[in-house]
Each structure stands twice: as C-alpha cells, then as structure tokens.
From TrEMBL:
SMART domains: Mterf
Protein name per the record: Uncharacterized protein
Gene3D superfamilies linked to this entry: Transcription termination factor 3, mitochondrial
Keywords assigned: Transcription, Transcription regulation, Transcription termination, Transit peptide
Gene Ontology process terms (BP): DNA-templated transcription termination
Any one GO molecular-function label of the UniProt entry: nucleic acid binding
Protein family: Belongs to the mTERF family.
Keyword Transcription: yes
Length: 278
C-alpha cells in the first residue's frame, strides 16, 4: 500500500461522514444512561473541602490522594456533575481501579457534562467499531479525549493517522494502546517531522510509514529531538541515503523512549544488522 503524502494527510476526510451520523443522533443516544446518572441528586455542601471527602467515599482514594486530586475541583459547589460522571463511567464498564486511574490522570473529567461531552465520545468510539473494553483502553491511553471536540479535533487527527498508517484497523489498534495518540501536539510535530525526513533526509515516505505502523510515536518527537536522532545516526556511521537509515532512527527512538534499553546501540550493532541484509 502506497504511503500517504503530506498533502493527502491534510485532505482526506473518510471519517467525516461517520461524524455527521453521530451528530444527527446526538439528541437521542445514551439517553437512558444519562437519565440514570441525572437521577442522583447533587449534594450541596458549605464545606469548601467537601470534594476531598467525596473522592474518599465515592472513589476509594486515600485522604492524601483525595486532597491532591480535589484541587482542580475546588470550584465545584455540588456533587451533581461528579455523580453523573461516575454513574455513567460505571454503566460503561469502568471498574473502581479504572475510575481512580482516570481521575488521577484527569481530575477535571468529573466536571464534564455527561450528555454533551462524555456520552458523545463513547458513542463515536463505538461507531468506529470499538468494543466496551476497547473504549476503556482508548480512554485510559488518551484521557484527554473527554475534553476534545469530535468534529474539530478527534476526526482530523484520526484522518491523519489513517493516511499515514494505511488502514482503519491500525488506527484503532494504536488508539487503544498508544499514549498521546490524540495529543494536541500531533499536527505541530507530525507535519514538520514528515517534511524534514522527506526533504532534508531523502527518506521515501513508504519507509517512514513502515516504521510508523509499529511505532507511531516516532513521528511525534519534538522536531529538534528528531534532528538529534539524525545526527546520532550519522555519528554511528550511517549515511542518510542508506536503506538502513530509517531503521537506525527507529532503534534510537526506541532506546531513548525506554527507561531501560535492553542493549546500547553501538557501531557493532550496526555492523551485525547490516550483515544480515536488512
């Protein structure tokens, strides 16, 4: 499958019809879940620290954890929204540990409007073909998704990834397990990095795409960090016009992205891999 050019990344819109379908259904999907969540009345409390106790009693946090995670929630005067969010999350398969992890990553999610912000994201992911457990994985890996607009942010990012990876299946696979897959920095890093690899390094786009299919975060490195990888590869004796150059960049990326690389990348490693004909 031919790799997408930078131009095609910007112009493909295959997910947009799906979004339009979701938007037309917005007024009626998940009504039962939302209604159920809304039946829990918000408890108004004069205590400015009531959310600390709430997080302990409703989510199972320790007092110290609750004190930390309640700080972004200090403006709340009622538990109405947190009640609705927790009830909805539980109805969608989140267990206690999953809810605690999500809140620890994004406490502000408890301030979301379930009907307007949360439920549409779940429905959109379901319409993409994700199962209940897949959706949980996708949200845990990309917790910021709950605060992103489907049309303005989520769809364009998925379009870019589909163009680069070459298939919807790979997009969904990485959406479930790759952190920052829908990060706000995707466009800011992806475009200049693709241009740099193509125009300055002379690396064919198919070769770039082949790496991204297994390591999509490679293209999300800071541009200056990617340039550093290129310099390091050249210092190891690998010229930019070598067919091995992209593979060495991938190996350097993996080494720097790992807390404990299994082995250092050295000139001897390059010699051994080259001898195998890769």
């Amino acid at each position: 499958m031919a790799a997408a050019t930078l131009r095609s990344v910007l112009r493909r819109n295959r997910l947009l019809p799906l979004f339009e379908t979701c938007r037309l259904r917005h007024l009626r999907f998940f009504s039962s879940s939302v209604d159920a969540a809304a039946t829990v009345g918000g408890t108004i409390s004069p205590d400015p620290h009531f959310m600390v106790e709430y997080l302990v009693n409703s989510c199972g946090f320790s007092s110290s954890e609750a004190a930390k995670f309640s700080k972004p929630l200090a403006h709340l005067r009622s538990t109405e929204k947190p009640d609705a969010v927790l009830n909805f999350m539980r109805s969608q398969g989140f267990d206690g540990a999953g809810i605690r992890k999500l809140i620890s990553l994004r406490p502000i999610c408890l301030c979301c409007n379930v009907e307007k912000n949360v439920a549409p994201k779940f429905q959109f992911l379901r319409d993409l073909g994700l199962s209940e457990s897949d959706i949980i994985d996708a949200i845990m890996s990309n917790h910021g998704i709950l605060g992103l607009d489907v049309h303005r942010f989520i769809v364009p990012k998925l379009e870019m990834w589909e163009s680069l990876l070459g298939s919807r299946e790979l997009v969904l696979k990485h959406l479930k397990k790759t952190r920052w897959f829908l990060s706000s920095t995707v466009e800011k890093r992806m475009h200049p990095n693709l241009k740099f690899l193509r125009d300055e390094c002379g690396i064919p786009e198919e070769r770039v795409s082949s790496v991204l299919r297994t390591h999509p975060t490679f293209i999300l490195r800071k541009p200056e960090s990617l340039r550093t990888l290129v310099v390091r590869a050249e210092e190891l004796g690998m010229p930019r016009d070598s067919q091995m150059f992209m593979s060495i960049l991938k190996s350097l990326h993996m080494e720097l992205s790992s807390d404990s690389a299994p082995f250092p990348l050295t000139t001897s490693c390059l010699t051994s891999t080259t001898s195998l004909g890769y």
